[in-house]
Specification:
This protein is an alpha/beta fold. The protein has 2 domains: about 210 residues, Ribonuclease H-like superfamily/Ribonuclease H (Nucleotidyltransferase, domain 5, 2-Layer Sandwich); about 80 residues. Helix content is about 50%, strand content about 15%. An 8-stranded mixed sheet has the order 1-2-3-6-5-4-7-8. Helix 1 packs across helix 2. The relative contact order is 0.11.
């Protein structure tokens, strides 16, 4: 069966759209909005519905942004996708004036396990490049590293595409078109293709994370993240230590250079002083010699007279 999208009418408002996405026979209710109040209500209803799973709640998460316009540019997060059960939310961050506190608490709650595919930079995008600075309690679980085939139980290659992961784990044929993934996610009205792309990505991530019981190995991911942070801190300390060692070595070289320059200058002064002293002594001896010679000559003349 194919994947399809249908908009639900009547529209609630221009920035609150509802769609039904059929994923191989399973309907998924999807909300697209830039209204913080709509996001708050969606979260309250979702958390109430799944309250009994509080300590093992899996949340499919995705972040989209527009392509970079030039080398080195880091475009901000444009949309945030969340999916729990058959409920998906596409929050247009770039068009929202603010973010509800409930969403901030939701992302920072360590009881929830956020999962995604190829999501190594999603947490950084939300925190560093989003004007709303959304912080997560920990990085979302990257399912690419944990996916297991439903056919033979083998661990999939960590470099496997999302299409391969979804097919092997769920049995769905899904096309995550690169053209759509790299389209303009900052425009006010998203295309049906973009909505389908974002919602299916979050929904499939939720299903795979739930099947893998991602809440059981999230501690491992946290330990890895902590280890990475410790490694970064150690590297920073080593770089700082190397900086000071290089600085001290440079100062030592400069001091050594100054020492030899001062020594050479002192020797030059001493040599110059000795030169003049020798010259003066020689002149004194010559003057003394001339004096006695003149005196002897004068005495000889007087004797002749």
């Amino acid at each position: 069966m194919a994947i399809s999208i249908t908009e639900d009418y009547p529209r609630v408002s221009q920035n609150h759209l509802r769609f039904t996405i059929d994923v191989h026979g399973t309907p998924c209710a999807t909300t697209v909005t830039s209204d913080p109040e709509v996001v708050r209500k969606w979260l309250r209803k979702t958390l109430y519905r799944y309250a009994r799973f509080r300590h093992r709640l899996v949340v499919g998460l995705g972040v989209q942004w527009r392509p970079a316009s030039y080398r080195g540019e880091k475009p901000p997060a444009a949309t945030l996708q969340l999916c729990v059960g058959r409920r998906c939310l596409i929050f247009q961050l770039r068009h929202s004036p603010t973010v509800p506190n409930l969403l901030r608490h939701f992302l920072k709650d360590p009881n929830y396990t956020f999962v995604g595919m190829g999501n190594h930079s999603d947490a950084e995008k939300l925190l560093e490049s989003s004007e709303h600075e959304l912080e997560m309690a920990r990085k979302p679980v990257n399912l690419s590293r944990h996916a297991v085939s439903r056919h033979d139980g083998r661990r999939l290659d960590a470099r496997a595409s999302r299409e391969t992961i979804v097919r092997e784990c769920l049995g769905y044929d899904v096309d995550f078109n690169t053209r759509i993934g790299r389209s303009d996610w900052e425009k006010y009205e998203l295309d049906d293709e973009q909505i389908l792309y974002a919602a299916v990505d979050a929904y499939c991530s939720f299903l795979i994370g739930k099947d893998l019981r991602a809440w059981e190995f999230v501690n491992i991911c946290t330990a890895i993240w902590t280890q990475e942070q410790d490694l970064w801190a150690q590297e920073a300390q080593e770089q700082e230590q190397n900086f000071w060692e290089d600085l001290w070595a440079q100062e030592a070289r400069e001091q050594d250079q100054n020492f030899w320059e001062d020594l050479c200058a002192q020797e030059a002064r001493e040599q110059d002083q000795n030169f003049w002293e020798d010259l003066w002594a020689q002149e004194a001896r010559e003057q003394d010699q001339n004096f006695w010679e003149d005196l002897c000559a004068q005495e000889a003349q007087e004797q002749d007279l």
